[in-house]
Amino acid sequence: MKLPFRSFLLGLLACFCVVSVVQAQVPPDAPLRIVIVGATHGHVPFLLGRKNKEDVVVVGIYEPNRILAERLAKNYHLDTTLLYTDLNKMLDAVKPEAAAVFGSIYEHMKAVEVCAPRGIHIMVEKPLATNVAHAEKMLQLAKQYKIHLLTDFETSWYPTTQKTYQLVNDSNFVGSIRKVVIHDGHQGPKEIRVNQEFFDWLTDPVQNGGGALVDFGCYGANLMTWLMRGQQPVSVTAVTQHFKPAVYPKVEDEATIIVSYPSAQCIIQASWNWPFSRKDMEVYGETGYVITANNTSMRVRNANLKADQSLLVTEKDVPVYTEPFAYFKDVIRNKIKVPEWGLYSLENNLMVVRILEAARESAKTGKTVYLKK
């Protein structure tokens, strides 16, 4: 017997209401059910290799490259029933709360297009997108479907990063920012032996959006946007070089980006040519400076100190999440809010993409690019 169309619609609406109620009633401390969307990114061990596997549970892995997926399953002792080669089928089958995107940067928008309409919260690896058009579309989808869309940077987990922000913006330790110099990078993807699947898109100008400029320039843009509390730069000037064209023929392996503000300047040095891996920054104000060496070591000086003071900072000293997935869970469960212009925030990371796009244009044309308000 066929149901009248009106009855059918009412029944369908009732089903949706039940689903919404069930989702809303997830206990705050229940494990976060998360899927992995793409597994070619070399940072996927950040999730699969977590020591605490009780607060965040991987319930599915979408990766079209079956050989890669099975290799990960073997390495991390995962049941192969978690593996899918069809994204829609996985999402419909496991109905996750959240997705961690570990494909190429270009593929981020597709992941958002598929996950957002289902109400699935998303965390992508840095940067948010390869271009401004993608980033703006992703922001629109996140707002339309009321999902969280976070971007993960390793430096967001650093106690020294949080301590720097405190000293610069929560006190008068350094005075107004005048110059920030940020160094990020390593010897190069090939030199540090990233896996082949990661290497293939990391050195592709479309899938990654560039080479060292994008891979490591994004850290500086993210940190400076945060330190400046979202102030839009006046201009961006960039120079890129190929020191190793035989290794990286399609993308630059060296980049210097100057981001200018009305009263401050940021110099971002992004490189695949450092002798050692590094993620550090120097913040100079009117009356002092803060220099970080790594995630826990830093030195500071201001007018009240006759010499540098070395600090060892841990998560016990400053309020910081030292890995991203516990943070992601607490955001989803409304235990915390992502600060406006915070390191993970959409607003910050849209600005990051705008800075990177301007830097690519500047390097290509040899001219300073002025950002429109």
Low-confidence stretches: 5-23
CATH topology of the largest domain, which one? Dihydrodipicolinate Reductase, domain 2
Number of strands: 15
Share of residues in strands: 15-25%
What would you give as the CATH superfamily of the largest domain? Dihydrodipicolinate Reductase, domain 2
CATH architectural group of the largest domain: 2-Layer Sandwich
Q: How are the strands of the biggest sheet laid out side by side?
A: 14-13-12-11-7-10-9-8-15
The helix/strand series, from N terminus to C terminus, equals HEHEHEHEHEHEHEHHEEEEEEEHHE
Structural class: alpha/beta
Compute the number of helices.
11
Question: How many domain modules?
Answer: 2
In short:
The protein is an alpha/beta fold and 373 residues long. The chain folds into two domains: 26-154, NAD(P)-binding Rossmann-like Domain (Rossmann fold, 3-Layer(aba) Sandwich), CATH 3.40.50.720; 157-318 and 346-370, Dihydrodipicolinate Reductase, domain 2, CATH 3.30.360.10. It contains eleven helices and 15 strands.
Structural commentary:
There is one protein chain. The protein has about 375 residues and is an alpha/beta fold. The chain has 2 domains: about 25-155, NAD(P)-binding Rossmann-like Domain (Rossmann fold, 3-Layer(aba) Sandwich); about 155-320 and about 345-370, Dihydrodipicolinate Reductase, domain 2 (2-Layer Sandwich), CATH 3.30.360. The protein contains 11 helices and 15 strands. It has helices at about 5-25, 45-50, 65-75, 85-95, 110-115, 130-145, 160-170, 195-200, 210-225, 325-330, 345-365; strands spanning about 30-35, 55-60, 85, 100, 120-125, 150, 175-185, 235-240, 255-260, 265-270, 280-285, 290, 295-300, 310, 370. The strands form 2 sheets. Strands 14-13-12-11-7-10-9-8-15 form a 9-stranded mixed β-sheet. Strands 3-2-1-4-5-6 form a 6-stranded parallel β-sheet, sandwiched between helices. Strand 2, helix 3 and strand 3 form a beta-alpha-beta unit. Helix 6 packs antiparallel against helix 11 (about 345-365) and helix 9 (about 210-225) crosses helix 11 (about 345-365). The longest helix has 20 residues, at about 5-25. The protein is globular, with a radius of gyration of 22 Å. The chain starts with a helix and ends with a strand. The model is unreliable at about 5-25 (pLDDT under 50).
